[in-house]
Design a protein that fits this description.
Blueprint lengths: L2 E5 L7 H10 L4 E6 L5 E6 L4 H14 L4 E5 L15 E5 L4 E7 L14 H16 L7 H11 L3 E6 L4 E5 L5 E3 L2 E3 L17 E3 L5 E3 L12 H4 L6 H6 L2 H13 L4 H14 L1
Length: 272
């Protein structure tokens, strides 16, 4: 899903938070900001480890004013390379630059070039042509509202060098930690541990199944076991958003996709 951080107080950023964000989004990292001379700066790369990311961030941190936007990429479309990392440049001339970062599963635009991400396509084929003729659109509330409707639950972050302002689309769908805005909280969901129980799922025989202590790390499920982890309709109704996050991350962490597939198949039957 990626993660955008708008650091309104860059000195308050916790390196533990940055490391947690990188742990879940390791396919690219980028920054954009105005330096101390108010020049627009953007840079991005695919780090091999968190140490590389930290050194990269610290270098830019020294040059920035107190604000900086950071993007951690999780590849959903296109190749994992520097070209598909964020930020992207949506407008540029001698006097002005507008940069873009995106967080979301999939933007509503056809993917003409399979090697390029959905954000690249959206920027190249929608935003750049519009802003080329009128870059001030990005400042107009009507246009911001149109973008919000178009991208639905996704988020955009723009930096406009002329007004020296960051512009967040769907700001309310993110959250603040102190002065700093985070585009989602998936990065902060604790990873599952096989040693420490955190959540139990009832099976269809109403027996408690402790998902964490009952599994071996090298255990391979058969189809009978999968159905122990799929909640009943009554249980699912009571689940909180955190329960859903935990369930999905548990399936992904263990490579167990059949519970998710089974639930989606049931939902398809429900809406058919």
């Amino acid at each position: 899903m990626c993660l955008i951080i708008l650091a309104n107080d860059i000195k308050s950023l916790d390196y533990k938070d940055l490391e947690s964000a990188y742990d879940r989004n390791q396919n690219g990292f980028g920054v954009m900001y105005l330096d101390k001379k108010e020049n627009f700066i953007s840079d991005k790369f695919v780090p091999k480890n968190f140490t590389e990311l930290k050194n990269f961030f610290n270098t830019h941190k020294q040059n920035a004013n107190n604000q900086m936007a950071l993007h951690f990429r999780f590849t959903t479309e296109g190749k994992t390379n520097t070209k598909n990392c964020h930020p992207f440049i949506s407008f540029k001339n001698e006097k002005r630059t507008i940069g873009l970062m995106h967080n979301g599963a999939r933007l509503p635009i056809p993917l003409i070039y399979p090697k390029c991400s959905d954000t690249w396509h959206y920027n190249e084929h929608y935003l750049k042509p519009l802003l080329k003729h009128n870059p001030n659109l990005i400042l107009k509330k009507d246009f911001q509202d149109e973008l919000q409707d178009h991208i639905e639950q996704d988020k955009f972050l723009f930096l406009d060098s002329m007004t020296r302002k960051f512009i967040i689309i769907n700001e309310k769908l993110g959250n603040y930690k102190g002065a700093n805005w985070f585009s989602n909280d998936y990065w902060n969901v604790k990873k599952f541990s096989f040693d420490t129980p955190k959540l139990s799922f009832k099976n269809h025989n109403d027996d408690k199944l402790d998902f964490y202590t009952s599994l071996d790390k090298n255990y391979n499920y058969d189809m009978e076991n999968y159905y122990n982890f799929v909640p009943t309709n009554e249980e699912l109704i009571k689940w909180t958003e955190q329960d859903i996050h935990d369930f999905v991350e548990c399936c992904v962490a263990n490579g167990d996709y059949y519970p998710l597939i089974d639930m989606i198949q049931d939902y398809k039957k429900y809406i058919a």
